[in-house]
Amino acid sequence: MSTAKGVIFLYAQSWLHPGAGASTGAIDLPIQREVHTEYPVIPASSVKGSLRDQAESTVSKDIVDALFGPEVSRGGPAVSSAKDTHFAGALSVGDAKILLFPVRSLTRSFCWATCPLVLSRLWRDLKTMGTDAHWQAPSEVQKGIALMAGETPERLFLEDMDFEARADRQTAAIAAFLADRFPAEVIGQAFHAKLKSDVVVVNDEEFKYLAKYATQVSARTQLTSNKTTDKTIGLDGKEEQGNLWYEETLPPETVFYVPVMAEPARGGAAKSELAEGDAVMDRLGKEVLQSGYIQIGGNETLGHG
Fold it and tell me: 204-213 vs 116-128: helix axis angle to the nearest 10?
């Protein structure tokens, strides 16, 4: 029995709404956040569901069941009552954790912000997954200081915050490592080149502020047939109620990563075919994710995710 390990890097090419499903303050539909850091997060269940949805359109049902487990009926027993159909999927999928958060700037159009806590977590997860990053995350960054990968301006402005910019070798090594994970033919030549120079490491508290208050908040409306949000009588004589709500989204160019482990298939018709963790991981990478794209989060029909 063997276990394969890896990391999936996610680069948002559209607005992203991993919804929390509960209102907090003025935002009716906020994004999900970690309770202890308040960083944006996409829970493992959402990531796994999106991977399964992708797999159902690219591989056979036997392979889908082997990778993710057979379907069960809601509130009842498994679809089949046979004992050999009750087994867990071969894939273990972690939460999608924030890595780089794009922030508008007066000096660089936008920069990707990150912090020592985020980078240390990435380094730790890479080590757990058996990957040597060949770089070390800074243990601390002073407030008001921004460590940059490329050439630095005298002052760096991110949102309403002012930083003293300093060139840093480790930040450059981190940026180069990440740029290697996102080919230019996928994210675009300009973004690939920018990724090598415009990654910025700021203080943990400053990053928390940016990740919390630099998201997009949009007003959305549902109008009645009389083009109003008020309760009214529609053209068909029935009572209608419109709605107005505020929805939070993460901007394009946000970067997450997902730890993944693969065990040998535990049951089903494809058990012998996927008898090694490496075979399971190969199916995930070469067939399920062959296109390089996946839809995650809500509002798919609005072009999000």
Answer: 100
